[in-house]
Specification:
By secondary structure, this protein is mainly α. The protein contains eight helices and four strands; from the N terminus they run αββαααααββαα. A two-stranded antiparallel sheet has the order 1-2. A two-stranded antiparallel ribbon has the order 3-4. Strand 3 and strand 4 form a beta hairpin.
């Protein structure tokens, strides 16, 4: 499965673009659309030169492709496109290791998608402090993840009234 525009739009919305290195809310040097590494594998440092948006997009596409493959390997069940996009955004933001060790992933792999969706809101902290931006991002990921449920309910409802 490959990430859709929904995934890339979430990442770009919440990471924003920065041509110059900055420290993210967790204190890690970051550049472009939330990248902590360059395509050559080097870590971003605060002394690095600015990059263009074109370079930032190249890094983003490469990193998201890598994360999507890792997310796919962690999944033991089928998910739909929106669920996959939400999971890749989650992993991009928090790291694949956090996803791999999470109750969130265990619930997904047990096909408890509703239970899993409730886990998003627990991941809104950086250095132990809840952040408004992370709270909003997790809510949007949860909504995307559960969009199948809304569609299913709408189809059922329309089927009943027709």
């Amino acid at each position: 499965m490959i990430p859709s525009n929904n995934c890339y739009n979430l990442i770009k919305k919440y990471e924003g673009f920065s041509s110059k290195p900055y420290k993210c809310s967790a204190g890690v040097p970051t550049i472009g659309y939330g990248s902590t590494f360059y395509l050559n594998g080097n870590k971003v440092t605060m002394k690095d030169s600015p990059i263009s948006e074109e370079v930032a997009l190249s890094i983003l596409f490469s990193v998201v492709e890598d994360f999507s493959k890792k997310v796919e390997k962690l999944l033991k069940v089928s998910v739909n496109q929106n669920q996959f996009d939400a999971l890749v955004d989650f992993a991009y933001n928090l790291g694949i290791d956090n996803l791999q060790k999470s109750t969130f992933l265990k619930l997904i792999n047990n096909k408890d998608f509703v239970g899993a969706s409730k886990q998003f809101k627990l991941w809104n902290k950086a250095n132990g402090k809840a952040l408004n931006g992370l709270t909003k991002r997790r809510k949007e990921e949860e909504e995307l993840f559960l969009s199948w449920k809304k569609l299913f309910i709408n189809v059922l409802f329309l089927g009943v009234i027709m």
